[in-house]
Write a structure and sequence with these properties.
This protein has a single domain, classed as Maltoporin, Chain A, CATH 2.40.170. By secondary structure, the protein is mainly beta. The strands form 4 sheets. It has a 22-stranded antiparallel barrel. It is globular, with a radius of gyration of 24 Å.
């Protein structure tokens, strides 16, 4: 039973959206799939077409993945960052670490999954985003807003599900080689082949390297150096009786180096090395099998071990982070209703050699149920709820309600949801600067979020459009509070963190040309951790605009240009300015297809926007968090060109 307080909160959020909603506004969700395009969504567990889902799911298809693959072959940061409402925020300029903020919420609330499994950890580390190659992705699914009803406490702000490519009936593969003007190198390979009538396999391997660079000659690395190896084999089962399964194993090793350059020193007269050695090993299984007369049995299981060695000047931090998931559910269809019910167990365990006081072990059993009912041909209602019994933060109920109404070419979606987040010692500042400056803290409260959204869509001929309005309130949000000049601590905010915003997306297709325009407006405020009032959430641009033009011809190649505007954003503890300057990033890319070989080139940040052109990156003294730099509110790497060759072999 939903409490009166929850009903009141959702009513308030819905009212906030309604007051901001212009009349007569109709648009279509992005991406739109017509009746001939079968884009099936996995992230909602229903296996429905994207246009039939009451929950809005943004899908990045293989064609768009290939385009971004040529721009940034080594990681998925660029791939997801150009989705409206999704922002990749740099959390450590020293190591280049970044996380994903969805609709203005902090990156720790975003869960990144691989085929529905948390193969990058329950709370994906900020550096993890930069260690995921896009080579073997078939599509990317993004759900915005509280998704704890589907995936538990790590999905307070949303979910990004990376869906792997499926092998074809004949062997195929590709090799991509890429080099950059900043002395970077990427080499990735993918092969897939059938093994028997029901078994097939794929293998993805990659090597990525970047030299450490000091672009403004201040002795500090503006671009960290790194060297990374990654391998991921997958085994697929597709039986004639409808049984299917995926078994995957992944391993990744990376050394990342930032901080002062050789021979340089900080204002205190000493060099400051900042390095990170990472190792990740994961194993995952998903399976579906029909049950005679009952429906379909769904199984999911995964285990992840991550090992890190951080160096912050004279401080060395070794840690180990393990997560595990086991889940079983049964689903089916009765008349016009799809249903699914299941149980899950999640384990999250952290150990630090140097700072054992911050170790934790969370054990979370859960029950969940979800259903969709087709009230009429153009109206579908959906509900889901999940009960988690967290070993440290107690039991929580996470419900979500959604509706889909499709009168003709119009599409209207609405969602209300609640979720919770279990605090850990890791917020953006402690992830970037380590635990040495973190003072012991008392009992924190679980973070509770209520979110709501409404989407108006329209599609007709070559025109697609979407207008979305969203709101979220978070109680007891974790905040970093300064204790003294050398220590900080964590507290649960006394008040509500509020986010309100809107997204607009317009797309026009004409023959081989597509034009896309997007606009995102976000207003986010939170209790001031150093006072009694409120403040704008730092590093949250109020306005962002994107314009993309693309020409693409099958068998010949593609050419595209793009422009992105980022508006002003509030800054925290920056002695040089209180708000970031607005800036524009321009880019252009091209690919020439020569049979199975294609040549590509890409130019990023043509205007050479760099934060260090406006202000220094370095502080005159070390901050209480341990940082020697201000937050990154603009690019630090400037103009970059990359290019290379892609070779396909085997079946098309």
């Amino acid at each position: 039973m939903i409490s009166n307080g929850y009903s009141y909160r959702l009513s308030t959020l819905a009212l906030a959206i309604g007051l901001a909603l212009p009349q007569g506004l109709h648009a279509q969700e992005e991406p739109q799939a017509d009746e001939e395009t079968e884009i099936v969504v996995q992230a909602t567990r229903n296996g429905r077409r994207v246009q039939d889902e009451p929950i809005r799911v943004d899908v990045i298809n293989r064609e768009e993945i290939e385009e971004k693959l040529l721009m940034r072959p080594g990681n998925i940061a660029m791939l997801v960052s150009e989705t409206p409402g999704v922002r990749v925020q740099t959390t450590s300029s020293a190591l280049g670490a970044a996380n994903v903020r969805i609709q203005g919420l902090k990156g720790r609330y975003t869960q990144i999954l691989a085929d529905g499994l948390p193969l990058y950890g329950g709370q994906t580390p900020s550096i993890g985003l930069l260690q995921i190659p896009p080579t073997d992705l078939g599509q990317v699914e993004i759900i915005k807003g509280a998704t704890s009803a589907l995936y538990g406490p790590s999905a307070l702000g949303g979910v990004i599900n990376l869906v792997s490519r499926r092998p074809q009936t004949a062997p195929q593969g590709e090799l991509l080689l890429n080099a950059t003007s900043r002395d970077g190198l990427d080499a990735t390979g993918y092969v897939a082949a059938p093994l028997t009538g029901t078994l097939s396999a794929s293998l993805t391997a990659g090597y990525d390297r970047q030299s450490r660079r000091d672009l403004n000659d201040d002795g500090w690395a503006d671009m960290p150096g790194y060297e990374r190896f990654a391998v991921r084999p997958r085994l697929f089962l597709d039986a004639a009786d409808g049984t299917n399964a995926l078994l995957t194993f992944g391993t990744m090793a990376e050394q990342r180096d930032g901080g002062t350059m050789p021979g340089a020193a900080m204002p205190d007269g000493a060099p400051f090395a900042q390095t990170l050695r990472s190792r990740r090993y994961d194993l995952g299984l998903t399976a579906e099998m029909p049950l005679e007369g009952l429906g379909t049995l769904h199984l999911r299981a995964s285990g992840v071990t991550q090992l890190h060695r951080h160096v912050f000047g004279d401080t060395v931090e070794h840690d180990r982070h393990r997560t595990a998931l086991a889940e079983a559910s049964v689903g089916g269809r009765v008349g016009a209703t799809n249903w699914l019910a299941g149980v899950a167990i999640q384990v999250d365990d952290y150990r630090s050699k140097a700072f054992a006081d911050f170790d934790y072990s969370y054990f979370v059993p859960a029950l969940f149920v979800q259903g969709e009912h087709e009230v009429a041909a153009d109206l579908t209602l959906a509900a889901s709820t999940r009960w988690d019994a967290h070993s440290e933060y107690g039991s929580h109920l996470s419900p979500r309600l959604s509706a889909l109404y499709r009168p003709g070419p119009w599409t209207i979606r609405a969602s209300l949801g609640r979720g919770f987040y279990a605090p850990t010692p890791f917020v953006e500042e402690t992830e970037a600067n380590g635990l040495s400056r973190l003072a012991p803290y008392g009992k924190l409260k679980a973070e509770i979020a209520d979110s709501s959204s409404i989407d108006f869509g329209y599609a007709s001929g070559p025109v697609e459009a979407n207008f979305s309005f969203f709101a979220s309130d978070i109680d007891h949000a974790q905040q970093l509070q300064v204790v003294d000049d050398e220590h900080v601590t964590l507290v649960s905010a006394e008040g509500v963190t509020r986010t309100r915003g809107a997204e607009v997306l317009l797309r026009y297709r004409w023959d081989a040309v597509s034009l896309t325009a997007s606009y995102v407006h976000v207003v986010a405020s939170e209790p001031d951790p150093d006072g009694d009032g409120r403040r704008t959430v730092p590093l949250t641009p109020r306005d962002a605009v994107g314009l993309v033009g693309m020409w693409e011809k099958e068998g010949r190649g593609r050419f595209g240009v793009e422009a992105y505007y980022t508006g002003r954003q509030s800054l925290d503890d920056n002695p040089y300015r209180t708000r970031g300057k607005p800036y524009v990033l321009l880019g252009a890319m091209g690919e020439l297809a020569l049979g199975r070989v294609s040549l590509f080139a890409n130019a990023e940040n043509l205007l050479n926007v760099r934060q260090t052109k406006y202000d220094p990156l370095l502080l005159s003294r070390r901050a209480p968090t341990g940082a020697w730099t201000v937050d990154a509110w603009a690019p630090t790497d400037g103009f970059t060109v990359n290019g290379g060759v892609r070779i396909r072999f085997g079946a098309e």
